[in-house]
Amino acid sequence: MARVEITYPEPTLFTHELSVRVTDLNFADHLAHDKVISLLHEARAQFFIANDLLEMDVDGAGIIMADLATNYRGEAFYGQILSIEISLGDFSAKGCDIFYRVICKDNAKLIAIAKTGIVFMDYSTRKLVDVPKVFLKIAGL
Asked: Which site in 30, 42, 88, 105 is 20 to 30 Å from 80, CA atoms measured?
């Protein structure tokens, strides 16, 4: 089976901690794969807020998810604290990838590496726009 390969680029720009809730568990009593995506979304929203932005307002542009890839590496269980690290990379004119590294703080195990491809859009015209300068600055570009 061919595996999705995701390399997390340094530096980490933001870290958000979340606990695994009982509603995040699957039939095997560990963190469900679909809930990982929801936890990534929460961390991403907090990353935007920490930078005085919103997913719907990055200097007037909103973001759209273009793709998602997740590489599951370990299990997490009810009550454990997850540290979700975020970095940015693979910039193009209209978007970039947001990378995530999910680590269990209780035992330092890597739970997942993921990335979401985003593009920026002017929702009033429904057209893609260039990556806002404020976002490039966050990335150190």
From this structure: 88
Those residues whose C-beta lies under 8 Å from the C-beta of residue 14, and which sit 6 or more positions away, are 43, 46, 47, 50, 51, 85, 86
pLDDT of 2 higher than 90 = no
Tokens read off for 50: 């920490």
Whole-prediction pTM value? 0.96
Domain ranges of the chain: 14-138
Residues 12-60: tens digit of each pLDDT? 999 999 999 999 999 999 999 999 999 999 999 999 999 999 999 999 9
The CATH code for residues 14-138 is 3.10.129.10
Q: Say how far apart CA 34 and CA 42 lie, in whole Å.
A: 13
